Amino acid sequence: MNTAFKKRRLALAATLVLATGAAHAAEPLSSWNDGLAKKAIVDFVERVSQEGGADYVHPSERIAVFDNDGTLWSEQPMYVQLAFILDRIKAMAPGHPEWKDTQPYKAVLENDVAALAASGEKGLMELLVATHAGMSTAEFESTANQWIRTARHPKTGELYTGMVFQPMLELLQYLRENRFKTFIVSGGGVEFMRPWSYEVYGIPPEQVVGSQIKVKYEVRDGVPTLAREPGINLVDDKAGKPVGIHYHIGRRPIAAFGNSDGDYQMLEWTTSGPGPRFGMIVHHDDAGREAAYDRESHFGKLDKGLDDAAGKGWIVVSVKDDWSCVFRYACAP
Amino acid sequence: MNTAFKKRRLALAATLVLATGAAHAAEPLSSWNDGLAKKAIVDFVERVSQEGGADYVHPSERIAVFDNDGTLWSEQPMYVQLAFILDRIKAMAPGHPEWKDTQPYKAVLENDVAALAASGEKGLMELLVATHAGMSTAEFESTANQWIRTARHPKTGELYTGMVFQPMLELLQYLRENRFKTFIVSGGGVEFMRPWSYEVYGIPPEQVVGSQIKVKYEVRDGVPTLAREPGINLVDDKAGKPVGIHYHIGRRPIAAFGNSDGDYQMLEWTTSGPGPRFGMIVHHDDAGREAAYDRESHFGKLDKGLDDAAGKGWIVVSVKDDWSCVFRYACAP
């Protein structure tokens, strides 16, 4: 990363941190309407923070984990990383003339959604490998970084990083002010998120857990390099989430925040430990301000989680009723 | 973990933190003799901490990584985790009568070092799987925790956690006071270290990177469980160290501390990045106070690192000359 770019990054980060701090110094969780969800959050945080109280948790054990897609930012009309993959295929196409006649590349280049869907998980994996492996980690970071700073959401025309959920940013901030350590635990690629997680969420790369491609260390022409290999080291989704948490964090969180059945096991693992526990599901039920989807959705399907939330004691957040404002770009002062 | 035990842990942690803080509030690195090594450390930390200076590094990027065996605590006459494995085989033997006549178990039960050595890496791996897999992560943590709190070093009779290097504890503290984030990056098993890393080193579990056994999430009789499987997910040694750093931390450290050729690639990866970088090797040359070993040692062999240190700009610390006191148990006031 060049120095000028780095300085801009730091300046932007400082601005965001200051802005967030200033806007909410007076009232935490200001984009949350008064209601059961907000009350449950505040009650939990106060209980575990009260020294001498029955539910006190030492700050070193206040670990909170957040899913990313659909929990911290929008996953509609498709995962942001999938949009990145499609854009990369198009950008790389001139160097691969054979893609014009080969599926699933042909489908991407022709915006043929039906053919792309027909290529299934195998097709997607091929696109993932083509765009995510075969380069150094530094090269991938640079590519992902440039893309996220310029690519725009197909519906709103906003930067994707503006389409993070303002109430969740406030929640991250509120937890950190109460000495929680906040982690992302996402099915998305860890290296896709790490370049911007600190700026956008205040979460440093070392607190981002995600799906991982294999890497290999080697000295290439005298230059130490981490090469991205065409193999998967961890699929950090569903039953893989507690595993990713264990590998990276090494202890059970006390609070987990998700939105889909991909987060079910993370919520289950987190909330079944002893002592005070907190689980929350964001339910996307606001077609006007964002999108309304759950049991039938291709992205972020929420079915079993909706059925079991009440029995498990998980709080279901209604975007429509619980959030006074949704996207950062639309809420910022 | 039961509550009484947890409270004792926290009390002990608080005592250690307070003791370390009080002892060194006046003078950091007080067990380091004045010399090139101490001067190099202080110079580096001051350079990266000076805002506006040419070598300033933002605190969020002040990542320092430490090998464990031979760098933070003694690895002689054998790795502590190997002593744990041998003790576990003996403790588990009553449930495995067949071990009396089966290698490599027989060798362990009869303290037959030659036969154990003859079983080679394959034999060791068998012992590792027998003692480290086939139970839940919670069961393993409890076993490791009980062992480390009672087992004693064969030569000094001290608890292993008393045989950590006092100058390195002061170095960890000094770096953290200067807003470094300190990580362990060890060839040892990550779950062997995490139960006590915070108490002993002030390093929380989520900042410990190490070799990793595969785990699997499942709900057993209604209880969410992480089961340890007989397979290795990561060997965090040699070229595996930069890989482990990348998976867990997600960015290149600016300072690395090791003592053996197992740390060579970690030092190389860390110090070949742009901007200010720091690499240090602890050279065990003090037979009187600890042990003298390097090129020929079975544990912690240091050969290539000694040859290349000067050319790479890595500081070689002499235990004999640079440390006024070695083990915590012998230095503590």
UniProtKB/TrEMBL annotation, chains A, B:
Q: Which residues cross the membrane?
A: none
Keyword check for Signal, yes or no. yes
Per UniProt, the keywords (alphabetical) are: Hydrolase, Signal
Q: Entry's InterPro entries?
A: HAD-like_sf, HAD_sf
Residues annotated as signal peptide? 1-25
Q: Which SUPFAM superfamilies match?
A: HAD-like (SSF56784)
One GO term in the molecular function aspect is: hydrolase activity
* Name by which UniProt lists this protein: Haloacid dehalogenase-like hydrolase
Q: Which organism is it from?
A: Marilutibacter aestuarii
